[in-house]
């Protein structure tokens, strides 16, 4: 047992709890604040989101002992908070809730967006909300509610501006009209504030996929037994590259702009994204960025991301291709985007893609010969990923 003390909504509470008690259970069972809902209990759905020192956290995977001495704000603690007052009204006016189960966490995340990203557009709002799952509304009303508050606060009143100024300075701040019962609302550290700054110009090869608005990041790479210049020439040929990518199909091409589809299957999840992508090259650095977006016809989920890659000479006859993928998913499939298993699956696909590249380079096609599609077995790849994880768990090399 451990004694835990924290300020919850401005009131100090102290309880003895098992050391592995999560914050969500502590709030519901010890403090008796049941507005914080627990659903997935894996940090995926966002229903349990609360503020700890002003920063949104998943209370279902945060230990209560880690919050000893901290300021915690739950949905019951906002009262006259100037941002939350506007959000509650906007959620009502835009029909942004139905069953209401996700609403406490959704409101907490929405308040974070309004405070931290005053210039956010609808695309950015949807990205920021993608970590909170709603199974009723389809998100349209929620997005409209947040956008209406952002629009209303283009010229913020003094109490809202005070909160934003305090956030930039990294200080604690109370809403101007808040009663003593409301918890002090900590502000966000610099890393959260700077996430909304415009990216600096970068060369095509050096640019990462940050232009996709943040999102999940995966690094990988593969070795190819050919000289770097020869590999670069191959990697600059969009149809040839697509033929090595499992599930990819180019339907039309105009210069460096291609349109097509890519099919993905991972266990019970399958999707077919149709869209377009553009390749930006930096021949001098033997680097490029493929920027693309698409939509799944079945789930209507939308994907956007950049694939940055660079060819590095290892020797006169060998090269390394380093790959940096940053992507975002919006819609029903967004819940899968942060899964560690899915990210391992994508890294495995990068390795398999590299093998296909080497095979194609070793067996070039004759003029006029159609490009074959890469062979791919989702089941075999999934088994390989699971086996690799099991080996890591048991300390195998």
Structure description:
This protein has 397 residues and is an alpha+beta fold. It has 2 domains: 1-195, Ubiquitin-like (UB roll) (Roll), CATH 3.10.20.30; 209-393, Alpha-D-Glucose-1,6-Bisphosphate, Chain A, domain 4, CATH 3.30.530. Helix content is 31%, strand content 26%. It is built from 11 helices and 12 strands. It has helices spanning 23-30, 82-93, 103-116, 122-129, 140-152, 158-169, 190-193, 228-235, 238-244, 340-362, 378-393, and strands at residues 2-8, 11-17, 49-52, 55-58, 71-73, 216-224, 248-254, 257-266, 269-282, 287-296, 302-315, 318-330. A 7-stranded antiparallel sheet has the order 6-12-11-10-9-8-7. The chain has a 5-stranded mixed sheet with strand order 2-1-5-3-4, sandwiched between helices. The two termini are 37 Å apart.
Short structural summary:
The protein is 31% helix and 26% strand. It is built from eleven helices and twelve strands. Strands 6-12-11-10-9-8-7 form a seven-stranded antiparallel β-sheet.
DSSP helical segment count:
11
Whole-number count of domains: 2
Shape: elongated
Spatial strand order of the main sheet: 6-12-11-10-9-8-7
Give the number of DSSP strands.
Answer: 12
Helix content: 25-40%
Q: Architecture of the largest domain in CATH?
A: Roll
- List segments where confidence is low: pLDDT < 50 over at least 5 consecutive residues: 172-214, 368-376
Secondary-structure element order, N to C? EEHEEEHHHHHHEHHEEEEEEHH
CATH class of the largest domain: Alpha Beta
Structural class: alpha+beta
According to CATH, the fold-level topology of the largest domain is Ubiquitin-like (UB roll)
Radius of gyration: 24 Å
Name given to the CATH homologous superfamily of the largest domain: Beta-grasp domain
Question: What distance separates the N and C termini?
Answer: 37 Å
Strand content is 25-35%
Largest sheet: 7 strands, antiparallel
